[in-house]
Design goal:
Distance between the termini: 13 Å
Number of domains: 1
Order of helices and strands: EHEHHEHEHEHEHHEHEH
CATH class: Alpha Beta
Strand content: 5-15%
Strand order of the largest sheet: 5-4-3-2-1-8-7-6
Largest sheet: 8 strands, parallel
Number of helices: 10
CATH superfamily: Divalent-metal-dependent TIM barrel enzymes
Length: 271
Protein backbone atom coordinates (compact mmCIF):
# COMPACT_ATOMS: atom_id res chain seq x y z
CA UNK A 1 0.00 0.00 0.00
CA UNK A 2 1.88 3.03 -1.28
CA UNK A 3 1.92 6.61 -0.09
CA UNK A 4 2.37 8.81 -3.15
CA UNK A 5 2.78 12.51 -3.73
CA UNK A 6 0.64 14.23 -6.33
CA UNK A 7 2.19 16.32 -9.06
CA UNK A 8 -0.61 18.82 -8.27
CA UNK A 9 1.63 20.39 -5.62
CA UNK A 10 4.00 21.94 -8.13
CA UNK A 11 3.28 24.63 -10.68
CA UNK A 12 5.66 23.03 -13.12
CA UNK A 13 5.88 20.74 -16.12
CA UNK A 14 5.17 17.03 -15.70
CA UNK A 15 8.90 16.32 -15.72
CA UNK A 16 9.80 19.05 -13.22
CA UNK A 17 6.96 18.09 -10.88
CA UNK A 18 8.25 14.52 -10.77
CA UNK A 19 11.72 15.84 -10.02
CA UNK A 20 10.28 17.71 -7.03
CA UNK A 21 8.54 14.57 -5.78
CA UNK A 22 11.72 12.53 -6.06
CA UNK A 23 13.70 15.22 -4.25
CA UNK A 24 11.24 14.96 -1.35
CA UNK A 25 12.12 11.27 -1.05
CA UNK A 26 8.98 9.70 -2.48
CA UNK A 27 9.05 6.58 -4.63
CA UNK A 28 5.43 6.82 -5.80
CA UNK A 29 3.57 9.51 -7.73
CA UNK A 30 -0.02 10.47 -8.49
CA UNK A 31 -0.09 12.00 -11.97
CA UNK A 32 -2.24 15.02 -12.77
CA UNK A 33 -3.98 14.81 -16.15
CA UNK A 34 -6.01 18.02 -15.91
CA UNK A 35 -5.60 20.64 -18.66
CA UNK A 36 -5.19 23.65 -16.37
CA UNK A 37 -2.12 22.15 -14.71
CA UNK A 38 -0.13 21.96 -17.94
CA UNK A 39 1.30 18.51 -17.16
CA UNK A 40 -0.38 15.48 -18.75
CA UNK A 41 -3.29 16.67 -20.89
CA UNK A 42 -5.99 14.17 -21.96
CA UNK A 43 -6.57 15.85 -25.33
CA UNK A 44 -2.87 15.61 -26.17
CA UNK A 45 -2.82 11.96 -25.08
CA UNK A 46 -5.74 11.29 -27.42
CA UNK A 47 -4.09 13.17 -30.30
CA UNK A 48 -0.57 11.71 -30.04
CA UNK A 49 -0.68 8.86 -27.59
CA UNK A 50 2.65 7.21 -28.23
CA UNK A 51 4.73 10.37 -27.88
CA UNK A 52 2.92 11.46 -24.72
CA UNK A 53 3.10 7.98 -23.17
CA UNK A 54 6.83 7.74 -23.84
CA UNK A 55 7.28 11.16 -22.26
CA UNK A 56 5.45 10.05 -19.11
CA UNK A 57 7.41 6.80 -18.92
CA UNK A 58 10.75 8.53 -19.42
CA UNK A 59 10.12 11.11 -16.71
CA UNK A 60 9.09 8.44 -14.21
CA UNK A 61 12.11 6.30 -15.04
CA UNK A 62 14.50 9.24 -14.83
CA UNK A 63 13.47 9.91 -11.24
CA UNK A 64 12.99 6.25 -10.23
CA UNK A 65 9.30 6.81 -9.52
CA UNK A 66 6.32 4.50 -9.90
CA UNK A 67 2.90 5.94 -10.75
CA UNK A 68 0.12 4.52 -8.57
CA UNK A 69 -2.77 6.79 -9.62
CA UNK A 70 -3.89 9.39 -12.13
CA UNK A 71 -6.07 12.44 -11.39
CA UNK A 72 -7.96 13.44 -14.53
CA UNK A 73 -10.61 15.85 -15.78
CA UNK A 74 -12.71 15.48 -18.93
CA UNK A 75 -14.76 18.66 -18.97
CA UNK A 76 -18.26 19.04 -17.55
CA UNK A 77 -19.73 15.55 -17.43
CA UNK A 78 -23.30 16.86 -17.68
CA UNK A 79 -22.62 18.10 -21.24
CA UNK A 80 -23.60 15.46 -23.79
CA UNK A 81 -23.61 17.06 -27.24
CA UNK A 82 -22.47 14.48 -29.84
CA UNK A 83 -19.16 16.21 -30.59
CA UNK A 84 -18.37 16.47 -26.87
CA UNK A 85 -19.20 12.81 -26.33
CA UNK A 86 -16.80 11.78 -29.10
CA UNK A 87 -13.97 13.94 -27.78
CA UNK A 88 -14.53 12.83 -24.21
CA UNK A 89 -14.54 9.18 -25.20
CA UNK A 90 -11.24 9.62 -27.01
CA UNK A 91 -9.70 11.32 -23.98
CA UNK A 92 -11.02 8.76 -21.48
CA UNK A 93 -9.75 5.91 -23.66
CA UNK A 94 -6.33 7.57 -23.96
CA UNK A 95 -6.03 7.99 -20.19
CA UNK A 96 -7.15 4.39 -19.65
CA UNK A 97 -4.59 3.21 -22.19
CA UNK A 98 -1.85 5.15 -20.42
CA UNK A 99 -2.92 3.70 -17.08
CA UNK A 100 -2.70 0.18 -18.45
CA UNK A 101 0.73 0.92 -19.90
CA UNK A 102 1.99 2.32 -16.57
CA UNK A 103 0.28 -0.44 -14.55
CA UNK A 104 -1.90 2.13 -12.76
CA UNK A 105 -5.18 0.72 -11.51
CA UNK A 106 -7.25 3.80 -10.69
CA UNK A 107 -7.85 7.34 -11.91
CA UNK A 108 -9.84 9.88 -9.96
CA UNK A 109 -11.96 12.23 -12.04
CA UNK A 110 -13.47 15.65 -11.58
CA UNK A 111 -17.24 15.88 -12.19
CA UNK A 112 -17.31 19.47 -13.48
CA UNK A 113 -18.55 22.74 -11.98
CA UNK A 114 -22.09 22.79 -10.64
CA UNK A 115 -24.77 24.41 -12.80
CA UNK A 116 -27.20 26.21 -10.45
CA UNK A 117 -29.21 27.49 -13.40
CA UNK A 118 -30.25 23.90 -14.27
CA UNK A 119 -32.51 21.48 -12.38
CA UNK A 120 -30.20 19.35 -10.26
CA UNK A 121 -32.10 16.19 -11.24
CA UNK A 122 -31.22 16.85 -14.89
CA UNK A 123 -27.56 17.40 -14.02
CA UNK A 124 -27.58 14.13 -12.07
CA UNK A 125 -29.17 12.24 -14.97
CA UNK A 126 -26.76 13.52 -17.60
CA UNK A 127 -23.65 13.27 -15.39
CA UNK A 128 -24.54 9.71 -14.43
CA UNK A 129 -24.95 8.75 -18.09
CA UNK A 130 -21.44 10.03 -18.81
CA UNK A 131 -20.02 8.25 -15.76
CA UNK A 132 -21.56 4.95 -16.91
CA UNK A 133 -19.75 5.34 -20.21
CA UNK A 134 -16.48 6.09 -18.40
CA UNK A 135 -16.86 3.04 -16.17
CA UNK A 136 -17.47 0.88 -19.22
CA UNK A 137 -14.30 2.18 -20.89
CA UNK A 138 -12.39 1.48 -17.71
CA UNK A 139 -13.63 -2.10 -17.66
CA UNK A 140 -12.55 -2.55 -21.27
CA UNK A 141 -9.00 -1.50 -20.35
CA UNK A 142 -8.89 -3.24 -16.97
CA UNK A 143 -8.72 0.00 -14.95
CA UNK A 144 -11.08 1.94 -12.70
CA UNK A 145 -12.38 5.50 -12.83
CA UNK A 146 -13.38 6.85 -9.40
CA UNK A 147 -15.28 10.08 -8.81
CA UNK A 148 -13.67 12.70 -6.61
CA UNK A 149 -16.52 14.12 -4.54
CA UNK A 150 -15.60 17.77 -4.84
CA UNK A 151 -16.59 21.21 -3.58
CA UNK A 152 -18.32 23.47 -6.13
CA UNK A 153 -19.52 20.58 -8.26
CA UNK A 154 -22.94 18.92 -8.54
CA UNK A 155 -21.70 16.33 -6.01
CA UNK A 156 -20.31 18.34 -3.11
CA UNK A 157 -22.49 17.51 -0.09
CA UNK A 158 -23.53 14.28 1.58
CA UNK A 159 -27.07 14.30 0.22
CA UNK A 160 -26.02 14.86 -3.40
CA UNK A 161 -23.35 12.20 -3.20
CA UNK A 162 -25.69 9.67 -1.63
CA UNK A 163 -28.24 10.27 -4.38
CA UNK A 164 -25.59 9.76 -7.05
CA UNK A 165 -24.70 6.38 -5.54
CA UNK A 166 -28.34 5.36 -5.56
CA UNK A 167 -28.31 5.95 -9.32
CA UNK A 168 -24.83 4.48 -9.85
CA UNK A 169 -24.27 1.86 -7.14
CA UNK A 170 -21.16 0.55 -8.92
CA UNK A 171 -19.35 3.91 -8.89
CA UNK A 172 -16.09 3.94 -6.87
CA UNK A 173 -14.81 6.98 -4.96
CA UNK A 174 -11.53 8.85 -4.79
CA UNK A 175 -12.02 10.06 -1.23
CA UNK A 176 -10.69 13.53 -0.42
CA UNK A 177 -11.73 14.81 3.02
CA UNK A 178 -10.66 18.39 2.30
CA UNK A 179 -13.75 19.04 0.17
CA UNK A 180 -16.03 18.14 3.07
CA UNK A 181 -13.93 19.77 5.79
CA UNK A 182 -13.92 23.11 3.98
CA UNK A 183 -17.73 23.04 3.94
CA UNK A 184 -17.87 22.35 7.67
CA UNK A 185 -19.26 18.84 7.06
CA UNK A 186 -18.46 16.33 9.81
CA UNK A 187 -16.25 13.68 8.22
CA UNK A 188 -18.12 11.01 10.14
CA UNK A 189 -21.14 11.84 7.98
CA UNK A 190 -19.10 10.74 4.95
CA UNK A 191 -18.29 7.33 6.44
CA UNK A 192 -20.46 5.40 3.92
CA UNK A 193 -18.34 6.80 1.08
CA UNK A 194 -15.24 5.13 2.51
CA UNK A 195 -16.77 1.75 1.66
CA UNK A 196 -16.47 2.80 -2.00
CA UNK A 197 -12.92 4.14 -1.76
CA UNK A 198 -10.64 3.08 -4.61
CA UNK A 199 -8.10 5.81 -3.88
CA UNK A 200 -7.56 8.42 -1.17
CA UNK A 201 -6.23 12.00 -1.37
CA UNK A 202 -4.99 13.63 1.82
CA UNK A 203 -4.30 17.22 2.81
CA UNK A 204 -5.33 19.40 5.70
CA UNK A 205 -8.24 21.85 5.30
CA UNK A 206 -10.46 24.09 7.39
CA UNK A 207 -13.89 25.72 7.08
CA UNK A 208 -13.94 27.84 3.90
CA UNK A 209 -10.36 26.78 3.08
CA UNK A 210 -9.68 23.88 0.72
CA UNK A 211 -6.13 23.58 2.00
CA UNK A 212 -4.14 24.82 4.96
CA UNK A 213 -0.67 23.93 6.27
CA UNK A 214 -0.51 20.48 7.81
CA UNK A 215 -1.59 20.57 11.43
CA UNK A 216 -3.51 23.85 11.25
CA UNK A 217 -6.79 22.47 9.91
CA UNK A 218 -9.65 20.24 10.99
CA UNK A 219 -9.06 17.03 9.00
CA UNK A 220 -8.95 14.05 11.38
CA UNK A 221 -6.33 11.88 9.71
CA UNK A 222 -6.43 9.28 12.50
CA UNK A 223 -10.15 8.76 11.97
CA UNK A 224 -9.73 8.39 8.21
CA UNK A 225 -6.84 5.94 8.40
CA UNK A 226 -8.38 3.88 11.20
CA UNK A 227 -11.77 3.70 9.48
CA UNK A 228 -10.19 2.60 6.22
CA UNK A 229 -8.00 0.04 8.00
CA UNK A 230 -11.09 -1.42 9.69
CA UNK A 231 -12.64 -1.79 6.24
CA UNK A 232 -9.50 -3.49 4.89
CA UNK A 233 -9.06 -0.74 2.32
CA UNK A 234 -6.83 -2.24 -0.40
CA UNK A 235 -5.78 0.90 -2.27
CA UNK A 236 -3.12 3.59 -2.17
CA UNK A 237 -2.93 7.08 -0.67
CA UNK A 238 -1.73 10.34 -2.20
CA UNK A 239 -0.68 13.53 -0.45
CA UNK A 240 -2.37 16.10 -2.67
CA UNK A 241 -1.49 19.66 -1.83
CA UNK A 242 -1.90 22.39 -4.44
CA UNK A 243 0.62 25.01 -5.46
CA UNK A 244 0.01 28.34 -3.73
CA UNK A 245 -0.34 26.97 -0.21
CA UNK A 246 0.48 29.54 2.46
CA UNK A 247 4.08 28.93 3.52
CA UNK A 248 4.74 26.66 0.53
CA UNK A 249 3.92 23.03 -0.11
CA UNK A 250 7.21 21.33 0.71
CA UNK A 251 7.04 21.56 4.49
CA UNK A 252 3.37 20.56 4.64
CA UNK A 253 4.02 17.55 2.44
CA UNK A 254 6.91 16.43 4.63
CA UNK A 255 4.93 16.97 7.83
CA UNK A 256 1.90 15.08 6.55
CA UNK A 257 4.03 12.19 5.32
CA UNK A 258 5.68 11.95 8.76
CA UNK A 259 2.27 12.24 10.41
CA UNK A 260 0.57 9.39 8.58
CA UNK A 261 3.39 7.09 7.48
CA UNK A 262 6.42 6.66 9.73
CA UNK A 263 8.20 4.60 7.06
CA UNK A 264 7.81 7.40 4.56
CA UNK A 265 6.41 5.70 1.48
CA UNK A 266 4.10 2.90 2.64
CA UNK A 267 1.20 2.40 5.00
CA UNK A 268 0.26 -0.90 6.66
CA UNK A 269 -2.67 -2.69 5.12
CA UNK A 270 -5.88 -2.90 7.09
CA UNK A 271 -7.18 -6.01 8.72
Amino acid sequence: MALACSTSAFKASHEDALAEIAALGFRHADLIAIPGFGQLIPAELARDFEAQARRAEAALAKHDLTAVAVNAAFGHLRLRAPELLAQRRAEVEAVAKLMRRLNVGVASFYPGFKAPELPWADVLRDSAATMREMLAIGRDYGVAFAIELHFNTPFENVEQCARLFEVLPELPVAYDPSHFAMQGIDLKDTKPFLDRAAHVHLRDAAPRKMQVPTGSGTVDFDWILNTLAARKYPGHYSIEYLAGLEGGVHESIKRLRARISPRGDTLPRGG
